[in-house]
Amino acid sequence: MADTAATADVVSATGSAEGGFLLATLQSMANWCRKNSVWPLPLGLSCCGIEFMATACSRYDMSRFGMEVARFSPRQADLLLVAGTLTYKMAQVMTRLYDQMAEPRWVIAMGACASSGGMFRSYPVVQGIDEFIPVDFYIPGCPPRPDAVLNCLLQLQKKIERDRSYRLALDAGDAPIAQGGLVSVEGRGEMAPPALAQAADRFIEGVRPKAGVETGTPPVRQR
Amino acid sequence: MAPDAATKNAQAVPGPAGPVPPAAPPTVDAGEIRLEVEGEVGERMVLNMGPSHPSTHGVLRIVLEVDGERICKATPDVGYLHRGMEKIGETLGYHRFIPYTDRLDYLAPLSNNCAIALAAEKVCGIEAPPRANALRVVVCELARISSHLLGLGAYSMDVGAMTVFLYTFTERETLYNFFEFLTGARFTTSYTRVGGVARDADAGWLAEVRAFCEGLPKKVDEWEKLLTRNRIWMLRNEGVGIIDRATALSYGLTGPCLRGSGVGYDVRKDHPYFGYEQYDFDVPVGTRGDAYDRYLVRLEEIRQSARIVIQAVDRMPKGPILANAPKFVLPEKTRVLTGMEELIHQFMLITGEMNPPTGEVVSYIENPKGSHGYYIRSEGGAAPWRLKMRAPSFVNLQVLKEILPGRMLSDSVAVMGSLDFVMGECDK
Amino acid sequence: MSSIGYRTDAPPTVRTAVAYALSALGAQWCDYSATGAAPRFRDTPAALLDAARWVEAFAVLQREHGFDLLLDHSAVDYPDRVPRFTVVAVVEDTTTHEVLLLKARVAEGEAFPSLTPLFRSADWAERETYDMFGIPFAGHPDLTRIYMPQDYDGWPLRKDFPMEGHLKFRD
Question: Which class in CATH covers the domain with range A38-160?
Answer without folding.
Answer: alpha beta
